[in-house]
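Q: Structure tokens for this one, please.
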Amino acid sequence: MNQFGSKKEFLQFAIYIARAAGKKTLDHFKKGVQVDRKDDDSPVTVADREAEAWMRERITEKYPDHGIIGEEYGTVGEQKSVQWILDPIDGTQSYIHGVPLYTTLIGITIDGEPEIGVIYAPATDELCDAAVGLGTRFNGHYCKVGNTRSFRESTLLSTDITTIYEEGLDQPFNEILKRCRLHRTWGDAYGHMMVAIGRADIMFDPLLNIWDAAPLLPILREAGGVFLDLAGHARIDSGHGFSTNELLAGEILSILESFPKKTS
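A: Here is the predicted structure, written as tokens:
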């Protein structure tokens, strides 16, 4: 592909370090891990820090010319062509409370474009991976989003309702909720993975950092679906987004346009 290596090679290494780092988080899972607070009052544990530090070490050893963006330790090499974007524990609240629906995330951008994504759920040993042009796989088997055409037959997933209201998105969300058949809060990246493999139809996410969103776009796109921000753009840096299939995306965007985001 270029001097840095091939996309397939990057994907295989991303799978390896996601699995290994994810398994490291199990060392503290359901064991009363101490919770600290960041400056923004979000929780962090020793498991978050250990897993990201380990991933960074492995990436730097193998690809010293690549950049890294991580939730816990910031950015290095921000001008590099290839960027590894890391979230050691997506769903820290779930992790802290012993809920197994947390994930380890890796996204890779090449020349600014999201090209590779890995979502690994260590406690359930479920892994979803994709690279643009190579398809999306779930536990080693190619997968696709569902083909639900109607809202009244769809399953909607979301993060916590409080965040939806705090972000001023209660009106469009309530309209989407009213039209759907079933709603569950299997949130964070686990919910997006459920859409990618066809177990759910919509995942609504009102608040995303780049390390939360980086793997989602290639995974959903290669699974035949879409990951869009709330304005309908396929971006990972907008701070919000939703995953679905192409059959439902238009109606979701129509609802979002009809109920603009509230501002305080």
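A few notes: The CA atoms of residues 56 and 150 lie 43 Å apart. The first helix runs from residue 7 to 25.
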